[in-house]
Each structure stands twice: as structure tokens, then as C-alpha cells.
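Progress note, project year one: complex with zinc ion.
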Amino acid sequence: MPMSSPILRIALPGPFPEPLDYLLPEDQKAPPIGARVEVPLGRRRVIGIVLQQVAQSTIDASRLRAIIKVLDDTPVLDPELLGLIEWTARYYHHPIGECLATALPVRLRQGHPAMPSAQRQWQITEQGKITLPSELAARAPRQAELLGRLQSTGRLSAGELGSAGDSRGALQRLVARGDATLSEKADYGLISGQAEQPPPALNAEQKLATEAIANANDHRPLLLEGVTGSGKTEVYLTAIQEHLSAHRQVLVIVPEIGLTPQLLDRFRQRLKGEIAVMHSGLPEGERLNAWLAAQAGQADVIIGTRSAIFTPLPRPGLIIVDEEHDASLKQQDGLRYSARDLAVMRAHRLQIPIVLGSATPSLESIANARAKRYQHYRLDQRAGAAKPPTLRLLDVRGADMQDGLSTALLDAIKKHLNAGNQVLLFLNRRGYAPVLICHDCGWIAECSACDARYTWHRGRNRLLCHHCDQDRPIPAVCPNCNSVDLRALGLGTERIEAALDTALPDIEPIRIDRDSTRRRGSFEQALAKARQGGAQLLLGTQMLAKGHHLPNVTLVGIIDADQGLFGADFRSAERLAQLIIQVAGRAGREINPGEVLIQTHHPEHPLLQTLIHGGYPAFADAALSEREAAGLPPTRALALLRAESTQRHNAARFLEEAKALIASTPHIELVGPFPAPMERRANRYRMQLFVQADQRGQLQSLLERWLPSVARSSLARKVRWAIDVDPADT
Ligand code: ADP
Ligand code: ZN
Ligand code: ZN
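Model obtained:
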């Protein structure tokens, strides 16, 4: 092979630790770095990304194969984004090709041209926003359904309608009524911010934070710790607008549950610029459009969930991560990345400001702020006239309870409803009851595939495993003793709903959980109903508890705080404290003062006591000391080597052998292997080995030396295994 024939190093999806080398045929023009190419792999053709052009390969040139086709003449990944993804691959010890596959929109991975598609799309009009779908429901159910969807998403594309035959006709009639408009131009599907609403005058705390974000001299990440309702979003909006005015792009990362039509409305009303939305629920075509709009510089603001961290930003100005403590920011399979941590790294590489906002920051971010690695700004006052809610524990030991509701809580509910206010009840478990038990022999309905009980879903009349999604009918008699006396044990939202029907027959509670909102748009409809005001009783899981501004709620009842008090995970306490404070934050968001009642059998528990008397900051103090004493993050760096197998001994032996591969190393401790808190899930046994290090750098260099030999070990092919750097849970 003559020296002149160039060799391309190409990252391919799959478990290849390194990019693979291919030849560029002489008649082909060399593709730029970051472009897609199609190459042969075994007998398949796959799409990869060009990472490098080299003069020589480590493989004998005669064995190299040639690329089939160059798909792009301009790169789909610019050097900055490519660099970030390469960093991600190194930090999380994940194959580069797989990291690229996670970062790229599916359509690009499949070889779709990197061009926006033309779209027929229906948009909601101002009139359509206030038309009640229920007005249409009787005569035109299809129109009502489509109007509901339009109200929740703002627009519908032809692709989203699927093949349902009568949709087009129903949409035509909505257009004729003036509730929707149809556009057919090829566009990126952006939302145009109109800045039609003036910003409120910021208070002193908000001003300080906004000025700090604008101060270009300090490139440390900024932690914005603001109690719920303190006006963090206003700070974001002000900071974002400054960057838009300077023609710079802003990337906003929000948790899955945080990307609501209300938030988008607020962005649209307050910002002047083009807004692209990205989340996993979008049809692939729209996701590609949003990504391309960002790449082309057409989108000024990109707001999206976790994977939006991999959006191209040709003119970057600012990154914001809202609810930075939220667990959904960490991917739990494949490339186990933290979008928050990558956002911090990306901002650092770009030398642009980054804001991490939360009412309940992660202990990691609080520790960073204390060590002065982050700037720390606090918003301790609620914005406007709202006052902080008062938190009180309701000791339910020995109390008279009706299906989980104490008399004291019921009395409080009645009082608030009678005053014309709204009540929000929180229980983080859907279904009727988490256990179905035989009263005669004690038999319990257990999932055959998991170490878990079935949850009884009365509405669906099924038993459902919340861990593997398996379901089955409810047995008529006990399979063990044939008794018909099967009873519900424990509480779920359906059961609370039923109890409320009995205790407060005049009130119709609005239940919001994954079961009650399975129909598209039903979640938004329920929230819209709640926002109409009037005495209303809301009941739900964390779907209801996070992020929503429900102005008329004055009482929040946490039905069962005990659930999370004794969790096996080292983050259980942190998660519970965050959840309680987030739920409590729904109370008293406007002029009416809020009250929060927390039912517990453990009123003396230190976590609850600290939260009640010192709030989240006091909890964080205590929790950080505990983590320090236990040598857990953020004090020490942690990675988990996870293994799962249908054979219990294989998973355990793989981890034992992996552990034996390294001699004892200073500053490093390998602990385990232990069974995962739920050892068997979906018929697989799950084990984990803890790798702890005093410093992140020590952990990284150990993983670099160790993992290649782990991959070569004899059992590595018999088990499913993964390394999880900075695990979110165990
Ligand atoms: P957070 O994001 O911290 O929960 P928001 O930014 O949503 O808080 O603010 C809570 C409410 O207070 C919103 O209705 C918002 O419009 C209002 N608000 C925020 N800042 C101010 C301000 N400086 N003056 C008046 N109202 C404000
Ligand atoms: Zn029985
Ligand atoms: Zn199961």
C-alpha cells in the first residue's frame, strides 16, 4: 500500500474499546473529522464517525477494509462536541462509539440526511388554548382529544398523528373553528419567543445572583440555592435574555418531569428568540430538527432533558441545569452519564458560565460550594408576597386511621377545603396497595421474576410488578390455601383516593400518577383543572410533587414519610429530604400561607427532626458529616462494578475475580461484592463491587489500568457487567 493512501479512524457503535481503521478509496474525497461514513463490519454495513486521519495503522494495511460511502461533506459533530464526547468516553470508561451513539439523534445514527424535514404541522391558536375539550367531547370526541393534545404540546406534526384515519378531518374542523392553524413550510419546528411579558422587578437576592452570572471574571460554576418559589426561574430568564441579546445561545437542562407546557409558555412569553425543545418523548424527526436548529445557530435557546447536553452550540453563551439534584439527570443504563456533571465540564471547556439551580441541591454541589469550587448564591425569600410554609410532624402511632389517613389530617383537609383553598396529598406509590396477602395463611403475591411483591392495581384489576412491568390477573382464591380472604396491605394512591371518597363524599379528588395519566394530554388536563382554582383536593405521586406552580394550594399532606426513612441505598436519606422539601414547596405559593403535615410513625427520627427545625441546609450539614464518616461521596470518589446474570454464582464469581485482579493499592478500597438492594430483578441476579478512592484522579487511573483486564476475564462474557462512575444509587 503506498504511503499516500489515507487511513481513517472510525468510531462504530458496539463494544469496541477503540475506533477501527479503514481505508479511504482513492477516488473518494476525504471526509472531514466528525462526518459520518458507512463502512463494512463483518457482513453488515454500519454507520460510524470519522475521528482522525492517520498515515499508518497498527493493523497490516492488507487487512484493512475500505469505507463504502461518505455521508456528510460537513461534519455532524464539531470539534467542541466531539471533544466533549471523547472526554465522556474516558471519564465513564465507555466505548467511544457507544458514547457517540448516545449523543447523536437516532435519525443521524440511522444515516438520515442532516437536513431538517418539511412538515405539515398544526398549531394551537390563542382561542384554542381556552376552548375546553369537554365542550367538544360529547359531539366530537376525536376533536376533543386532538384539542387536548394540542393544548398540552402546542403543536402536532403529521408524523405524530400516526395512521389514525379520522385525525386529519378532525383537525380540519378544529382549524375551521379557529382553534388551530396549519402550516406546511419546511422548518425546524422552533417556538418563537415574543417577550410579550415584561419581567418583574427583581428583589435584592435575585439581583445579586443575576449580576454574578453576568460577571465574566469568575468562571466557577454558580450554585443557585433558592427555596421553592423564591424566583430562580426569574433569575434564569433574566440571565438568558442577556445572552440572547448578545446573540449567544443558551442551553437549559431540566429533569424529565420539569419540562412542562407551563414552563415553555413562560419562556415563550418572556424571551425574545427562537426556542428549541428536546426530550425523549418527541418523535425522532422533531428531535433531529431541534438538534439541527441548534447546530445551524437557528435556535437561540435549547431546553431539554438529560440527552440535550449533547446539543451542538456554535455560539455558546450560558448553560443552566435546573433541579440539579434530580435523579433523572443521571442515565441508569448504557452510558451512565450525569448530565449535570457533563454540563459543568462542558461549560469549563467552553469557558462559559454555568448555573446549577435547586431548592434542595445535591450534597455533591453543596460540598463543591463549601470548598469554594462553586460560587454559592442563595434565595432565601419567597418572591412576591408568598411566605414559607410551616412544616409539622403528625405522630400517627396508635392514632385512629382510615386507610392511611389520620383524623388530624382529615380535619386539616376539611378546614382548608372549607376555606375555599386547595389541598395536595402526596404518596409516592401508585396502585391500590403494595401487597396482596392471604388473611388465613399469610401467602403474599410475589413477582416470579423479581425479589418484589406485586402491587395491586384495583382500577386495572391486575397485579403489577413495578420493577419488571410483568402483570397478571388477581387470583380469586389464595393459591396456597384456597381461602377467598385476600386483603390489601399498605397504601397506594388508588387506595387513598377510595378512602377520600368515603371520608369526604362531596369532594372529587384529582389523582395524578402514572396510571391516571396514561392517556396523552391527560396530565396537562388535570393540572389545568387544578389551576382553575376553587376548593380542590389533589392526590398524587412525585409527578404532582415536583416543579409545578399550583397557586391555590395551602395544605400539603405527606401521607407516609416512613417509606424512605430506612432505605438501603446510601442516597435514600438525601432523596427523602429532597422529596419532602420539594413537596412541601407546593404549599402557599401565593398570598395564602401554607401548611405542611407529615404523617409518620417515627417523629423522633433525626432526619425528620433536622428537616423540621433546620430545613434543608441543616439536613445537608448532618448528611455531609455522615458521608464523611462513612467515606462515601462526595467525601471520597465512588464507582460501582455492576454484574448481573441469570446464574447467581456467575455474577458473584465475576466480581470476585475482578477484585482479585488488583493488588492492594494505596488510597483505594474495594468493598464487596454485595447483592444489589433488590438482588433479583427480571430474572437476573444483580451484584456489585464498590470501588472507593480518596481522590477522583486515583479512581480514574485505577479504572484505566484495571478495566481492560476485567474485560478479558473468563466470566466477562457470561455476565452482563458495567462500570458506573459516580453512581446515583446502588
Ligand atoms: P422558583 O423557580 O424558584 O420556584 P419562580 O421563578 O417560578 O420560582 O417564581 C415563583 C413565583 O413568583 C412566580 O409566579 C414568579 O412569577 C413570581 N416571581 C418571581 N420573582 C418575582 C419578583 N421579583 N417579583 C414578583 N414576582 C416574582
Ligand atoms: Zn392462604
Ligand atoms: Zn417483577
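Residues 606-630 form the longest helix (25 residues).
The radius of gyration is 27 Å.
No further modelling is planned for this target in the current period.
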